Amino acid sequence: MSLFLIxxxxxxxxxLPGLMNSxxxxxxxxxxFTVTLAALVGLLTNLPAVLAGxxxxxxxxxxxxxxxxxxxxxxxxxxxxxxxxxxxxxxIITYGRFYLSRDDNMGEFFTYLLLxxxxxxxxxxxxxxxxxxxxxxxxxxxxxxxxxxxxxxPEGRAGARMALTVTGMGGLAMIxxxxxxxxxxxxxxxxxxxQNREMIQASPLYLxxxxxxxxxxxxxxxxxxxxxxxxxxxxxxxxxxxxxxxATMVKAGIFLMARMWxxxxxxxxxxxxxxxxxxxxxxxxxxxxxxxxDLKALLAFSTVSHLGLITMLLGTGTAFGAMAxxxxxxxxxxFKAALFxxxxxxxxxxxxxxxxxxGGLRHLMPITFVMATLAALSMAGIPYLNxxxxxxxxxxxxxxxxxxxxxxxxxALAVVxxxxxxxxxFRLISHTFLGPKRDDYPAHPHDPPFxxxxxxxxxxxxxxxxxxxxxxxxxLVRMVTAAVLGGAAEMPHAHLKIWHGLTPALYMSIAAVxxxxxxxxxxxxxxxxxxxxxxxxxxxxxxxxxxxxxxxARWVIHGLHNxxxxxxxxxxVVTVVALGYHGWRTGMVGPATRTMQAAGAIEIAxxxxxxxxxxxxxxxxxxxxxxLILIAIVGLMVSVGFVVFSAPDLxxxxxxxxxxxIILLLLAxxxxxxxxPIESTVLRRxxxxxxxxxxxxxxxxxxxxxxxxxxxxxxxxxxxxxxxYKGGGGTNxxxxxxxDFRGFDTFGEIIVLGIAALLIYALTETLLxxxxxxxxxxxxxxxPRAGDMHPMMMVxxxxxxxxxxxxxxxxxxxxxxxxxxxxxxxxxxxSVGVVMQYMASGFSWATARQRYPxxxxxxxxxLVAGLTGIGSWFVGKPFLTSDxxxxxxxxxxxxxxxxxxxxxxxxxxxxxxxxxxxLESFSRLARRAHVPDTEHAMDIDPSRDPADPVNxxxxxxx
Amino acid sequence: xxxxxxxxxxxxxxxxxxxxxxxxxxxxxxxxxxxxxxxNVFLFASGRLTIGAPPIxxxxxxYTDPLPQALVLTAIVISxxxxxxxxxxxxxxxxxxxxxxxxxxxxxxxxxxxxx
Lengths: 958, 116
Hints:
The complex is a heterodimer. Chain A is 70% helix and 3% strand. Chain A is an all-alpha fold. By secondary structure, chain B is mainly alpha-helical. Chain B has 3 helices and no strands.
């Protein structure tokens, strides 16, 4: 099966459990099981190739410019991990089906589980380190969801947050490390990176990259000093603990260290950091685990300890160490998952995981007793169980490892770690299962149904099988080890076997087991010492660090972002002016190349009106109605300016936009206070004047300077002028640019305009649905209303003029391609015509005659424009390629028919729809406010019977 | 001519900035409209000022720069949409809270969520 499909299956399958939720719990688990099984079978179809030593690859380019490609590869190491993930996944799914209660949402659980599974499979199969990072972060996120699955438990939520914070920070560090690594090699493909050991280790950036990548690995695999999150993640449901926190996710860091082993290991830095961290973690985890009373906490710390062991083995940098690490990964996954599931069974049946409240369970739960005991003894390192074999190899490796120039340090610590490891295993067995039967269990414990004990039992069978017949596992271990080593080291000659002779490792093993029994005998006095001894609580430190970070963030944010928007605006203006000044001082200004053009009296008069209106607006802005009139003058003068400077299209657009803007503001002002009160102090106003003048002077000086100089590089406008007629078939270059050269821009712009209008509509709806509605209905106008709301003169005039307006719009639209005009302007003109009807004849009257909703018109416009663009695909041209021809319909002028005109029609419709929807929304607010709104167009209609205003006799005639 | 345009841009910018720094929504909207004019004219002026030269292909000796015109044309229409949205938000805030202040009230001294 293709590698793509193997990775994609869990992700695609994640859609199914949610759908199957209503079909029952078994169906839900069944579909999850099937998906996982399919992925596993797909993986196994690649086994022959992997066994033959090939590396199966599959890839597509994703973002080749960034070196980010969707490349997957499958070698021995990846196969081993993927098989672990999917195989144990199958057991966990079966177990989870029976573990979760009826109250738990099973679809949600299995969806998260499959997401996690897909991300893990993605990690182990990625051939691109950037892709690997994506999957890496996905595991952090999905494990967050899984740990916090029981949302009602506060410790579950806290544990999930802590795990996400720690692994997320590690992931962040790792991104940096991976990017450095990619920079060193010049490729982000693992297969390339793995070939460049010398280049990487010789680089001065080797150490930073190493540290950053190891930070990612250590946080994920809970190595000291980041080990503390794992025990808190135990608030998760037990299937999650067994899956994520023993077999898979915490092994992701180990996997990455193994993956990178050929290029990163073997240096003193690698040896020092990895071995030391691993050793400390191993001993610390084992010691803490001994004194934990919660079964899952004990197992969590034992996991921390064993991960430390594997890390230490990888850290030694020898081929034998790597082989031992691989073997221990396999063994640990089997016995630890079985132990976690057993702990879950005890919790499920006895309703407690507290060892102090358990004991004597061997009579009540014989099956669980046998399974847990075998798995625990394997973990303790008892012969004929698989844990013994890899532990022997670890001890053997430890005797050859010299740290800090002290030959005895590593072996001694390894023995201490193994001793405590044996001790907590013995404690687990004796305090939970042995001893007399008690009568105060919270519930009556008994063995669970087969679905729950079957999966761990299968693992225990493996534990015994590998333990007795280690040569069965040897081919697998050798294949994986070969993949880990790459070309960096020779394959070790050692074989997996039970009896190696009277080696130092055997004596150390005996010492560890004997010492473990001794520690168990003296457990009570030791516990008293432990409880009395002061020790740092990682959770408290973590929370203090988080609280400090939050305090700093709050201080910074509240200091800078205190809700005073005017202050932000002032800061922005000052910053921009300062930056501009800096550029001015450090840059160069060439001599003026253009001469000033003479200004006539009319231009000066227009300028004076603009300046006067602006100043008037500033000084009189407290009178809001007056300021509307003044701003209209400014807009008018700007339009006139466009006329003077040869921009007829702009002048027409500005003029029509001006009309609708003022109507809009008038509608708004209907509700807002009519005056702005004086609130700011004189000092503040002075400050604002200084800021504003600074900004104004800067803008003026900059405009002044560039207006007197030609462009440094020739403008692309020449191209547009030259090709407007030839390519676009129109002589109005501005319009051709809009609908042809830069049609894609325009397409985006009408969409934005439509979105803005819909936003206004949505806001209006929200307002009218909420408490504002009552407020509007009760509102009294603060100014006297006009006695004649719909004067007859105006109604008649607007109706007479309506066809003319539409005609003008049509004309402007048609000629737009060759003369000033086009869809934008025509749309605005038609909108103004329609708005006049609203104003003159009233909202109800106009709405009653409206045939299509404005939303639909916006949609039609965008659709027409888009389909026009798509049309060019059918003739094999890129999106929005235009074509044109000229036709002459006899009584009219020669008319050009261009696809661009169709596009312009879309623009026209979108503009009409957007403008009208905005204005209509505003007036709907007004309509709620002043209820008396008749459906009659005129207040005094001569054709209506004045005696009976409700039943006009000539209504049908209008 | 150049001086007139440059100074007009400056005056509109200064006036717009002053109004944007006011405390109530309506003057801020006015200020943003002024700034919109200033920015549009500024962008338009980046094509340099040309008098009596059409952007329409005909038998003219020289043409004005059509590109800034096309850009500004859409900017004018979009700015209408933007103004309308801002006005709607201001209106909604005023109708909802009976308050047309731009700034949030000052947060309480004890650092609690008073600003919200």
